[in-house]
Every structure is written in structure tokens, then in C-alpha cells.
Amino acid sequence: MGASVDHGFKIVVVGGFGVGKTTLVRSVSEIRPLNTEETMTQAGEAVDDIRQVRGKAATTVAFDFGRITLDARNVLYLFGAPGQERFWFLWDRLFSGTLGAVVLVDTRRIDDSWYAIDRLEHHGTPFIVACNDFGGPVRAGEDVREALDLDPHVPLIDCDARSRASAKQALITLVGHVKNRYADPSARAGLPRQEFV
């Protein structure tokens, strides 16, 4: 397929530690995703705060990669960024050439989403916010929007990263948001030039 593809579109999935980024990439990728998950050890307990992610046995140490073929000439590449603070230095480079991003949020730990949103706004990268379903009480959308201080134009949706249909809907929402931003000439001025890196 590689020789026949004309356009590769890059989407990044970001968010805090343990919010489901790897799960989302796995659930929607048509290929077996490349991932860099490693088993969490006691040595890492001093580095990563795991109190809010009980039962997490592995963690991403570089990034996840998946692919979705849109048609014979267009492919969507998915990159899942590591959520731990010690890996945030990778994010700015990963955002280069990105069509847009999905910020995955665990509403029980909403503060973990601030850095991702800040970096995306800094780069002028279009993004949506997807609240991942962890089976707990659902937080009202307006409460989440206010807690994250989201601009009204940023889509906010519910998502179950384990569900292929739900993960696809998050990506469709992002693509629609990007399309609307590019269709608006006043918004286009703030968007980065699109190059796949």
C-alpha cells in the first residue's frame, strides 16, 4: 500500500497518565499498533504517581502508533503520547505536522489535562476533548468545560476508549472540527502549516 498513498494525516492522542490513550489507539487501529508499553515496577512508584490509577500494570514509555486507511490514497496515522510528566518533552516534537489532537480526559483527575491543552493551544493545534468512561459517576459537560476553561468552539464529547465505535466517533468529531476551522478564514490564520512529519 505504501507506494499508492498520496496523503498521510497525523492525529495525536494526548492526556494525563493512565487516561486510556493506548487503549484508544488499540481499539481503532487497523494494524496491530506499535506500542512502547513496559511493565510498571516498584522502582517507578517513586517517579509516577499511581494512586489514582490502581490496577495499571503497564505504561507507555515513548509513544503508541496506529493506522487507519481512509481510502486507496489517504491514510490516517495515530500517535498516542505518553502521559507522565517526565515524557512531556516529547510532545512538542510530536505535535509537529499534526492535523489535530484528541485530549483524552479522566474526569476524576481533570487537572491532569491542563498541560496537554496548554501545549496544543500554544502550538495553535486544533483539538477536541473526549471524556473517557471509567465507569464512575458522569460529570456534566458544562462542569468539565468550565473546569478546563475550554473555549466554546472546542468540541467536548463522551468517549469509551475500549469501544472501536466510540473511538472512531472521537476521531470523526476531531476531523469535523478541523474541517470547520479551515473553512473559517478568520480561524485559518492561527493554524499551523500542515506537513506530515
Automatic annotation (TrEMBL):
Record keywords, A-Z: GTP-binding, Hydrolase, Nucleotide-binding
Classification via CDD domains: Ras_like_GTPase
GO molecular function annotations of the record: GTP binding; hydrolase activity
InterPro entries (alphabetical): Gliding_Motility_GTPase (IPR052705), Gpn (IPR004130), P-loop_NTPase (IPR027417)
Domain of life: Bacteria
Keyword Protein transport tagged: no
Annotated TM spans: none
A Pfam family reported for this protein in Swiss-Prot or TrEMBL: ATP_bind_1
Family designation: Belongs to the GPN-loop GTPase family.
Name of the protein in question: ATP/GTP-binding protein
Source organism of the structure: Streptomyces broussonetiae
Phylogenetic classification of the source organism: Bacteria, Bacillati, Actinomycetota, Actinomycetes, Kitasatosporales
